[in-house]
Amino acid sequence: MRPDELFGIDIAAEVATLCSAQLQGPWQIPAEFVRLANAKGAARVQVERAGRGLDLRFDGVLATRRDFEDLVEVMDDGADRVRRQAAVSGMESAGLSVLLWATGLPGARLKMAVTSLGGTTTLSAKAGRLSVETDEDRAGPPRTTVRWWCRGLSVRRSVSWLRTATRFVPIPVTVFGRPVDRGFEDGLYRMRIRKPLVGELSVTATGETASLWLLENGVLSARAVVPGYPPFSAAVEMGGIVPAGSSADELRAAANPSLEHLIDEAARMLLLLVDRLPDLDEPVRARLSTLLLRFALRGIRFEQVMSSDVIRVRRGSGRSMESPLEVAGWARRNGGVLRAADPAVEVGGGGGPVVETTTEERALLADLLGVHIELIDTGLQAGLLFRLRSLARRVRQRIRGVVGAPIIESRELTGDEKALIAAWSDAGSDLRLCRGSGSARVRGSTVIVGRNRPEVRAAAGVAAGSDGWLYPIMLALTEDREIPEAIRSRWLASVAAEDPQRVR
Length: 504
Description:
Structural class: alpha+beta
Largest sheet: 8 strands, mixed
Oligomer: single chain
Number of strands: 21
CATH topology of the largest domain: Heat Shock Protein 90
CATH architecture of the largest domain: 2-Layer Sandwich
């Protein structure tokens, strides 16, 4: 008996295993064709509905007749097993795994036509039976068409994933006549990076979690969160760094050595925006200033942030931007007290300089500078306005507490989610997770928040490792809830332990 007969493999089972290891479901396969198109130098992609499946059209050649013949051999149960295995390995190495998946899944139907100056070669696959034909009379400019369907395919989910996964692919992608949106959905500013990874950094208008989009040939392969750091988003190319067919965990491991540089680059990008702060709308100004202060609190670009004009200051009737060091100086001259007011509230011109800051900015300044924050008396009208706004927020929270998505039973929670809920109880209230991605709502002393919110997923992972980060977790998930001082102190102690050299 030959060795290949003794140690033969089940090719169909291997294809299924490869598919399940690389993909979450068949709905991801159309995006994999876009990944192949980008790798092969296609100029553009168009996606249209075709019955229960999809039509994909590419300007470029995605495969050769030899590639199709290798695929036919792989799927031929009667072919030599060693040659079949070699063909599988060769297709994986060449980035052609999508052809294996698109033909090997249950009920798969594929018709792929590749046109070049030499004619048109067509691969037809149905129920595991494959054929290849070439028509030399149908020559033309390089193009590829794919019509694909398989059992259990959700076109809606495929389209949704296409619009998400191809946001950073360098070639134009049109889905159902509409171009795919480019870049991060909530991006305020972006910056290209070239080393140690090629990609794009962005600061977003919302969100409390630093996140990475790990791309291969421009298409999203995996995501990762960076808990404990100020939020930013990065999309980086991992193709050529990891072998073809690498798992999501392998991609994350490969990106890990570059995290420190990416975090530093995110802080540098924000510092490049400092000159724009005086002219920005207040919500954007506050967002950027807050992020810079949070980076400084982590000891990242500390000296640069402390000497940059990131704090809005009122002096008499005029406003200016000053550095945390300048603010610390006149706070010390005032007995270690920093006078502050909400940016939306008008204050009188007397009594010396006043920092116009949000609640989070004030908390960060107090920690960074070691000063006492004194929220000045803003007068009856402003005080009434503040109380009315606070009342409105509480009313909205309580309304959401009565009406909203159902709470998830404990038996359905993951271990990390249970750890988050257990840590939350230290604050003297309860946390419950509900279905969906809704924002926090309040029912009595219980905070209810959507399980699928990115902040919740990131918070669950952090809470499972340490309860020291409960304070920023509660800040991220709630709006106006009072957080006990003990929780904040525990967080500060955790930060100090991680970076004992940080200047306070």
